[in-house]
Specification:
184 residues; alpha+beta; PH-domain like; 2 domains; 3-stranded antiparallel sheet; 8 strands; elongated
């Protein structure tokens, strides 16, 4: 069994539908991080605890959804197709308690991650799952033009933009052929 096969099997055994809330250890991680602020502890811990209480994840067939907040509600939805890269980062305290942050980057032009998934204990399995879903979405884009499952083929018909581009390509080829015949 190769490493990629074992990673794929681990990712398949992870039930991502059950990952809707962060692990309880994330709350204690937030408290410890806030304590490092010294006298500013109450100011630092309050927003983090609100984030922990309201943080929700949803993994569906087409993408990832993450939301948190009471007063200022923030929601992010990323399709697997938009994912460009996935980074797993762990500081010393996160490694000690078994946590990590999975940063999901898109081609949005920002240097930082579009979404940071925190509080998941099955980090490697989640990363492998996201990579497999990301590659699966890319595989659909790279499928052949005549493939019935190709994203540009809807019920056997090609997307209008793609059909127009093919028509332009064919017209340019015929003009080039006509000009080469006349030059002979």
């Amino acid at each position: 069994m190769t490493i990629s096969q074992s990673a794929l099997e681990k990712a398949e055994t992870l039930d991502v539908a059950s990952l809707t809330r962060p692990a309880p250890i994330l709350r204690w991680y937030y408290v410890v991080i806030s304590m490092m602020g010294g006298p500013f502890f109450p100011i630092a811990v309050l927003p983090l605890l609100i984030k922990y209480i309201t943080l929700r994840y949803r993994f569906d067939e087409s993408g990832i959804s993450m939301s948190w907040g009471f007063v200022f509600r923030r929601e992010i939805y990323l399709t697997y197709r938009r994912i460009q890269d996935i980074h797993v980062t762990r500081n010393l305290l996160q490694r000690w308690v078994g946590l990590a942050t999975v940063g999901v980057q898109t081609a949005s032009g920002q240097a930082k991650a579009e979404m940071n998934i925190e509080g998941i204990l099955e980090i490697e399995e989640l990363r492998d799952y996201l990579y497999n879903r990301m590659r699966g979405a890319r595989g659909e884009e790279l499928a052949g033009e005549n493939d019935a499952d190709h994203p540009c083929n809807i019920a056997g018909k090609q997307d209008g933009g793609l059909a127009l581009l093919k028509e332009i390509r064919d017209s340019l080829k015929s003009i080039a052929d006509h000009l080469t015949k006349e030059s002979r």
